[in-house]
Automatic annotation (TrEMBL), chains A, B:
It comes from the Bacteria. Coiled coil: none annotated. Pfam families: Rrf2. GO terms for cellular component: cytosol. InterPro entries: TR_Rrf2-type_CS (IPR030489), Tscrpt_reg_Rrf2 (IPR000944), WH-like_DNA-bd_sf (IPR036388), WH_DNA-bd_sf (IPR036390). This is Rrf2 family protein.
Amino acid sequence: MNGQFQIATHVLTLLCKQPGELLSSDYVAGSMNVNPVLVRKEMRKLRACGLIESKEGKAGGYSLALPPQKISLADVYKAVKLPPALGQAKNKPNPECPVGRQINAHLDHLADDVEAAIIKKLSTITIFDFVNQFD
Amino acid sequence: MNGQFQIATHVLTLLCKQPGELLSSDYVAGSMNVNPVLVRKEMRKLRACGLIESKEGKAGGYSLALPPQKISLADVYKAVKLPPALGQAKNKPNPECPVGRQINAHLDHLADDVEAAIIKKLSTITIFDFVNQFD
DNA sequence: TTGTACTGTAATAATTTTTATTACAGATAA
DNA sequence: TTATCTGTAATAAAAATTATTACAGTACAA
């Protein structure tokens, strides 16, 4: 299991709900019951992709770098870099076997197709859309 | 990481390439360099879904229960029951927070949509198609 | 009917991944 | 100059995955 996408989406939701405010990792971590360092780690990825901005020092924190209509869940997915949806084998198939010799190439190609399908789906939903579902 | 889908697909590929033969978990495990018990565990799932058959006793092993044109990779995906593609948070968000109170429901709904997109993609590919890519 | 070669399954250990915790340097506002 | 943040590393704890061992049960074959 892996809650990185959920953490990132949770923070973006909070940022979207409180526009203009800088939210600290402690505040956010409190809303989700998770360690603040984990929040800062995800924020680093989001910032590297230009989705959020951060400000250090007293009264610092995080804010959206783009209007929420411009941030898709596909952007979030790509930013957090989850392990592949089909999993990832770490075995080394037997190169003597005609199947073992080739299968990783075919599985990799398949994994790429699946990732593309996920991204296609997620690209239809923005953080704005997601947040609008809330009461 | 998690190689369960890869194991299942590897076995089905071997079964497809050697129709009529019963392949043992040891033989299969040798082709992929993985523990035979792991193979038997995945086979249990595939059998529960009616994709393969197994025969105990001497000269026993596994065989396809359906023609490979009738087995889609979506069937395999559903059989192995991977963890959700978007991950799965195990935190309990703060119920005092308006976002924390609702977000899991919305994240679950999103996860369902993504799983559906994956299955839709995988349902277009059969084991027969997959194996036909091999030289 | 006895030995051999399998599956099925449980229990446990080893490995890997994820999350939590601690610590502290650096930035910035009051 | 003090308090409150981010950024980051190091390490520990927890959880998930894979490997290993063991053995009961099944089926074939000599």
